[in-house]
Automatic annotation (TrEMBL):
Annotated compartments: Endomembrane system
Transmembrane stretches, start-end: 79-99, 325-344, 364-383
Name of the protein in its database record: Transmembrane protein 135 N-terminal domain-containing protein
Family to which this protein belongs: Belongs to the TMEM135 family.
Length: 495
């Protein structure tokens, strides 16, 4: 306590605004160090966790216990809102896109394609599951955080409490489905944790030199090129190594029929053609009459029929842009409603304008990315007059250069997202080829990886907040509440 002004130093400087408690005698106590200040001179401010320091009127329970319970409930509710909002928004746009092409789907229902009603029910279930997942994660984290702080002391447990709470909340991923593997999500969160850990290492005196290469200005572009080489090669050669949802995404934006992909795969792997008739039939259905040569060395005529390579790039780019717009509308719209909810009322045109500009820019990135994948491979095939697996891998590497179209702040997000899927695909291919053993004992490695990753992330959130970008801190603070700073008064340290 500071005897000069009768106020605990916990509430001075950067700690100003935290809560003071009253005991039965009317004395004031610090909510963090729980030391009593007999001086009546203090200023009671609102708590930084999203609730007011006023009496809640819930009977004989202490105010601090009800505030902790309220923090748990509020965090759970906000986590549910974010999970359901993100998943529900994506599902909504997916359903709307599906309804637009319902005539085409009507002819495929005989082959087992789900109906629109079934798609809506499935989307509702997925929305509910992801809402429960993030709601439970937030509630579990806050609960464990408060329990450890109450039992071990706020200051004494500050260095490790968030790590334990983050790890304890990780198994909430099982709420998305006990038999549903989320390896891609777990690896992506692991990549995010690694980025935060590397930022901590960069500013550390001990590990600064080791982590200095991670500050390379164009490292995100390199990661994107590396990821593209694996992902797009797998898209053509080994689609079963990709997650089903991501495979569906690539098949949609790759813009090529499965018969065309099978033809490119056969020529790249040196197999005899088995479906040239199906490819010719596909082109004929689209108004293009073509006769494919079974002795061809490069698959350009398979990929774009009678079009030239440059003409195919331009026409594909326009079509890809139309496909990309519905993808990025919810990506920019939903965060604007959550992160910028207050500013949206004050300056709606500015925020919505930035959202539309971001949508147009990101859509251009995705369309250039997809169209350039075919352009680079065609160029390489024509130069070397051959097509094989190394050529496919090399030809898809420069596709990642399309990421330069995106904002610098979004590049690392996209490259890490793709890197997570590339890593999963790579290890799946290595395992199927017999180079890596299959794990029989650990069936839910994704939950273990996710728990470890979120433990690191939540530790950085509580102890190394400067390694986060402000927009992510805003979301985390909104859900979990700003972590109260450890009590730094001399009296608290001595105790």
């Amino acid at each position: 306590m500071s005897p000069s002004n009768g106020r605990c130093e916990c509430f001075s400087g950067e700690n100003a605004g935290d809560e003071l408690d009253h005991d039965d005698s009317g004395d004031v106590s610090c909510a963090h160090c729980r030391k009593i200040d007999s001086s009546p001179s203090y200023s009671c401010n609102s708590v930084s966790l999203g609730y007011d320091s006023v009496s809640l009127g819930y009977g004989s329970l202490p105010l601090k216990d009800w505030e902790k319970l309220r923090r748990v409930v509020i965090a759970s509710a906000k986590g549910f809102i974010i999970g359901a909002g993100l998943k529900g928004g994506l599902a909504l746009f997916s359903i709307l896109a599906r309804l637009r092409r319902r005539k085409a789907l009507a002819s495929l229902r005989k082959e087992g394609v789900i109906t629109n009603n079934e798609a809506i029910v499935m989307a509702f279930k997925e929305t509910l599951r992801y809402g429960l997942f993030l709601g439970t994660y937030a509630g579990t984290f806050v609960s464990v955080d408060e329990i450890i702080a109450s039992l071990g002391g706020h200051r004494r447990t500050a260095k490790w409490r968030a790590f334990v709470a983050g790890a304890a909340a990780g198994p909430s991923m099982l709420l998305t489905g006990l038999n549903t593997q989320h390896t891609s999500l777990a690896i992506y969160i692991l990549m995010r944790a690694a980025v935060l850990a590397s930022r901590c290492g960069i500013k550390s005196k001990r590990f600064g030199r080791i982590c200095k290469p991670l500050t390379w200005a164009h490292g995100d572009i390199f990661l994107m090129c590396l990821s593209s080489s694996q992902i797009l090669s797998a898209y053509i050669l080994r689609q079963d190594s990709l997650p089903p949802s991501y495979k569906s995404f690539l098949n949609k934006h790759g813009g090529k029929d499965t018969a065309i992909l099978e033809g490119v795969k056969e020529i790249a792997t040196g197999m005899r053609f088995s479906n040239l008739g199906a490819i010719e039939k596909f082109y004929k259905a689209n108004g293009v009459n073509i006769k494919l040569d079974p002795n061809m060395k490069v698959p350009c005529s398979i990929v774009h029929g009678n079009q030239s390579c440059s003409g195919h790039f331009l026409s594909f780019l326009i079509q890809a842009y139309k496909r990309a717009l519905p993808v990025y509308l919810p990506v920019y719209l939903i965060p604007a409603l959550i992160v910028h909810r207050k500013g949206l009322l004050k300056r709606p045109y500015t925020i919505l304008g930035k959202g539309l500009l971001g949508t147009a820019r990101s859509s251009l990135f995705l369309s250039v990315y997809c169209s350039s994948a075919w352009m680079w491979t065609c160029l390489l095939f024509m130069i070397f007059k051959r097509c094989n697996i190394p050529m496919v891998a090399v030809g898809t590497f420069p596709t990642g250069l399309a990421l330069t179209i995106e904002k610098k702040s979004r590049r690392i997000e996209i490259s890490l997202y793709c890197l997570a899927r590339a890593i999963e695909s790579f290890f799946t291919c290595m395992t199927d080829a017999g180079y890596l053993p299959r794990s029989k004992n650990l069936k839910r490695a994704d939950v273990v990886i996710f728990s470890l990753s979120t433990a690191i992330i939540m530790h950085c959130y509580a102890e190394e907040r400067e390694v986060f970008r402000s927009k992510y801190l805003n979301v985390l603070d909104w859900v979990f509440g700003v972590p109260p700073p450890p009590c730094e008064t001399p009296r608290c340290k001595n105790s």
